[in-house]
Amino acid sequence: MSFNNLDTLYRQVIMDHYKNPRNRGQLEGDHITVELNNPTCGDRIDLQLKVENGVVKDAKFEGEGCSISMSSASMMTQVIIDKPIEDALKMSEMFSDIMLGKEMEGYEFDIESLGDIQALQGVSKFPARIKCATLAWKAMEQGVEKDDKQG
């Protein structure tokens, strides 16, 4: 597949998650809530996590923002549900490294394990957009930390 075709496919995946977000909404019952915003551009996320026995059992989000931040939140919730917290945090570290353009060696996950998130690789070429892409991931990290302190 040529670069232009791949770029077009990635844009379509991002726009699909933006227009049809997965796991958008509110969780019922006990859950962790983290609210974060990116004051630079106005992106805002309200992430809810249900964690049981060290596993992310469910994740939902609400918020406002650009296609990058909202798509990233949709994609992230898809990959962390039913994952042990340690795996979710490792995926977050890997995603952060992808956004910073670092080498992807030494991870137990490959980029394909991140599902649609690989469509966001191109964001690394636009430093001003990296915070948009990582906002939901930072919220998840804070939520997991909050759960660890409560548990």
Automatic annotation (TrEMBL):
Q: Name one GO molecular function term.
A: iron ion binding
Spell out the CDD domains in the cross-references.
Answer: IscU_like
Pfam family name, one: NifU_N
InterPro entries annotated for this entry? NIF_FeS_clus_asmbl_NifU_N
Domain named NIF system FeS cluster assembly NifU N-terminal: which ranges? Answer: 10-132
SUPFAM superfamilies attached here?
Answer: SufE/NifU
The record's annotation in Gene3D superfamilies points to: 3.90.1010.10
Gene Ontology biological-process entries? iron-sulfur cluster assembly
The record's similarity note reads: Belongs to the NifU family.
Under which name does UniProt file this protein?
A: Iron-sulfur cluster assembly scaffold protein NifU
